Amino acid sequence: MASTSLVTGATGFVGSAVVRTLLAAGHQVRVLARPGSDRRNLAGLPVSLAEGSLEDGASLRAAVDGCQFLFHVAADYRLWVRDPAAMLRTNVDGTRSLMTAAMAAGVSRIVYTSSVATLGHRLDGPADETTPSELGDMTGPYKRSKFLAEEEVHRMIREDGLPAVIVNPSTPIGPGDIKPTPTGRLIVEAACGKVPAYVDTGLNVVHVDDVAAGHLLALEKGTIGQRYVLGGDNLLLAEILATIAKAVGRRPPVVKLPRLPLYPLALVAEAWGRVSGHEPLLTLDGLKMAKWRMWFDSTKAEQALGYRHRPAEQAIGDAIGWFRTNGYCR
């Protein structure tokens, strides 16, 4: 009989890709979904549904009951929020509650989805799992919440015997980004010709399906207590925008903007966001993070897990194709 895996965040971008990967590998999949959530990413998939949320402990206990494996992918991923405390409750307290429920239910193996946001930065090359960081290095509520959540998982591994492996995806792109994520928004705006300039920064971009495959590899081959960067290609933002422009037949932006003069614009954008309720495209935390080239090294996952990733150009092309097909950009 196939093992049952619970996937949190399964209606979202990375979570739904993990669900598809698990189904293809023969797993029975149960998904935790909020009542009334957008479930387009699960359409047609043979999954069982457990309604609940990370804030509802009883729903978590019911969801993990009878599951052998847990993939905790769910997180509040936004670079700007009106209520940072709510993000902390979801990402930190919710993670603790879910891990406690999983241990009580006898789940034998957990893959916890953290983020490269928890890692430090290096000036001499890409960062990896060993690059030191501390809470004071974390810019903004999202990075702080993910850092604290990962620290809590590490603590439970040490003190409680939590059977968890940690994966740290970089910047996933590709099909199924229904929200879309902040990076998905950038791709949509650039593909539609609405990004006339850029700042000097860099990202590590990876196909979401490669990240999902890395989750399964972490389950099968990962060492409990270890973390593994699941990344792709390191590119300058200018290179990413040029690849998008080439894919859609537009001219890439050529104007490089300094960061400091953009801070007043970010203040205005955030003020409007507080009034309108919409997440601003330009944020103070985003500008602070752009100071660093957010480049990462996946060598550990490649050597220990057999992880592989496809070229960034293919990942970007698949993302644009999905956004176009689904009416985000014409």
Describe this structure in words.
Helices cover 42% and strands 17% of the residues. It has a domain of 200 residues: Rossmann fold. The strands form three sheets. It has a seven-stranded parallel β-sheet with strand order 3-2-1-4-5-6-10, sandwiched between helices. Strands 7, 9, 11 and 13 form a four-stranded mixed β-sheet that branches. Strands 8-12 form a two-stranded parallel ribbon. Strand 4, helix 3 and strand 5 form a beta-alpha-beta unit. The mean pLDDT is 91. The chain has 330 residues and is of the alpha/beta class.
Task: Supply the key terms.
330 residues; alpha/beta; Rossmann fold; 7-stranded parallel β-sheet; 4-stranded mixed β-sheet; 11 helices; 13 strands; globular
Question: Which band does the percent of strand residues land in?
Answer: 15-25%
* Whole-number mean pLDDT: 91
Helix count from the secondary structure assignment: 11
Helix and strand element order: EHEEHEHEHEEHEEHEEHEHHEHH
Which sheet architecture does the biggest sheet show?
Answer: 7 strands, parallel
CATH topology of the domain at 4-175 and 205-232: Rossmann fold
CATH architecture of the domain at 4-175 and 205-232, please?
A: 3-Layer(aba) Sandwich
The secondary-structure class comes to alpha/beta
Q: Helix proportion of residues, in percent?
A: 40-55%
CATH class of the domain at 4-175 and 205-232: Alpha Beta
**What is the oligomer described by this structure?**
single chain
Find the count of extended strands (DSSP E, 2+ residues).
13
Backbone CA Rg: 19 Å
- Let me know the CATH homologous superfamily of the domain at 4-175 and 205-232: NAD(P)-binding Rossmann-like Domain
Low-confidence stretches: none
Bulk shape: globular
CA-CA gap between termini? 46 Å
| Strand neighbour order, sheet with most strands | 3-2-1-4-5-6-10
